[in-house]
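The instructor's notes for this session suggest beginning with a concrete chain rather than abstract definitions. Hand out the sequence below and ask the class to guess, before any prediction is shown, which regions might be ordered.
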Amino acid sequence: MLKKHAITAWLTTSPTHRPVAILSTITLISALILRAAELSYWSGTLLAGILVCGLPLFYDLIRQILRGNFSVDLLALLSVVTSLLMHQYWVAAIVIIMLSGGKTLEDYATGKASSVLNALAKRMPQNAHVLDPTGTPRDVPIESVAIDDEVVIFPHEICPIDGIVISGSGSMDESYLTGEPFEIAKAPGSAVLSGAINGNALLTMRATSLAGNSRYAQIVGVLHESENSRPRLRRLGDRLGGWYTPIAIAAAALSWALSGHAERFLAVLVIATPCPLLIGIPVAIISAISVAARRGIVIKDAAVLEKISSCNALIVDKTGTLTYGKPVLTEVLCDRRLRRQMLQLAASV
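After discussion, reveal the predicted structure:
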């Protein structure tokens, strides 16, 4: 259903990361102020903030570890634990800010990249005017519209579901769906597509599909599936994170063993904690899908984005793919003395 895509499927800013990032930043600034004022309880304030902010992040990380996902965030967990054991509270606070701030930025960037996809889902009306047995239209959720229900489409409304016109004559703008720039005439027996914009006439149609199977729902579903597809480049990024984490931990342990100082272990872990290391690939994919959707291009499989660089041929079909479908005069090639006459003849044709 469209409503399901719009509410539960789209990527939104995390409800956990953003408050943690804000609270950890406030805690760090407060501790700095208290220390500058030479108040002794600055360390207790900092430690309390670390524990409060760190618990939800640790919970998420531990769940990832139990699922066998040893991502680069594991380095952040080890950094914070090691910092607390060594009473390096400032380091622990900064790592928590890095981790929560990086995830907040990732959620924000992903949400911004998906704004066009959200707009596609929100564009669709959530209610339809269904005629009851007395012939009176009543508003019902489009999920409740059954096949063969009679639906009224008022002038300038967006058609909520696919169907067949049974009463009324007018026209509809289907360019949003087909790319054709012309309004399509509609009369009894004409097919109408969900997402099309009705013209000046009132039309009555008989539903021929459920809301979840309508043309517009399929378009939104394709975009949603393309968001979740995992092309080779993204899997490569995941594998990079899987190799990076154990190598960084081994390097930190080696530094401790060679120097004999535990601070070296902590230093290497903190430096090697690139919380947003793998943000770039998924955000770039979703951004490309959203930019394409804004220009009327539906990407069914995100893997094609990787193949564009090696593509030697492009096959396109009709008007609206390469052109806007609105021809304009750019040049008249003829004798200047005949230019006006030629334009008159062309206009007459």
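Then share the key points. Residues 1-15 have pLDDT under 50 and may be disordered. The longest strand covers residues 127-131.
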